[in-house]
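As promised in the previous annual report, we have extended the structural survey to additional targets. Below is the entry for Catalase.
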Amino acid sequence: MPEPLKYNKKFDELTEEEKKLFEINKKTIADFVEQSSSISDVDYATRNAHAKTYAAADGTFLIDKNIPEELLPFFDIEKFDLTIRLSNANLKIKNSEKDIPAYGFAVKIKDEKGGLIANFPLVNFPLFPTNSVSHFLKLFTAVNRFYMKKWSSFFSLATQMLKVIPSVCTLSFARNILKLLGKRNDFILSFDYHSVGAYRFGDHMIKIKLVPKSVDKNFGKKLKMKEALKNYFQDHDYTTDVLIQFCYNLKDQPINRLNVEWKNSPFIKIGEVKINKGQLLDPPNCTTELLSFNPFESKIFFQPVGKIQKLRDEAYKVSVQTRRKINKLLHKHQ
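The corresponding structure token record, generated without further manual editing, is:
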């Protein structure tokens, strides 16, 4: 294995303009979460992305027996306990029969005493629609305002969406859109899940991919997703391979270009994630909604890398602080 590129904090640095836009964005995140119960018509404050929880479960991360020797220092025990949340990416919770097939598979890895090692929010689409921090912040701010004020911010939202179009016109993006369209009606557990950006792995940088084993893509076709997952875990175990790619050079494995896939970096299997049947946690409620999967709460050597990733730190904090404040008050009164 050639020597991977080393992490450098310069990958994460924002410009002054980006920092100013981020402050505006954080205010709209807090406002959105405060109004989220009425936006989604539920009796708790929701996240301002991946608002809809389909299921939460206990799982296990089993380390592969044939793991490369140089990776062994990261895995001092054979298995780790997990908490997993399956979600939909929409900001608004809809009770419609059919959700857009934009799914989340968030993983919390814990040590033997239950302490947090790392959070990895993974999704079923490997790319991000823009590499520009400014465009993304303006778009995300416009989306939040659109949900809160409806049509008054429509023009701003449309303008920002048009600016994103050039960065989604890549072969990688087109190929993955077609792939997603072909799988749009498939069962949530039959998808691969990806870390869209890079993460630290000690001194180096990686991307993560989960590839499920033998899941029937047609399972629960006629059921709502929550019901389908409940039925699945009554009778089935779920296992997925955990693969990582290292960053060796920025030309083939760019850190801050999230609209293209990494190439010339082989996938290395490091283990399996397993959810045994009967491991679903209680139906999503206020307690589940207090869970946070902020990847910046991870140990320092497993934290996100890159400018767009850097935005998640403060955004998660604002969202979770606002959400927990409201939901703890609601929890007391239930």
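Residues 9-332 form a domain with the Catalase HpII,  Chain A, domain 1 fold (CATH 2.40.180.10). Helices lie at 16-40, 133-149, 154-168, 171-182, 225-235, 286-289, 307-332. These points will be discussed at the next consortium meeting with the crystallography subgroup.
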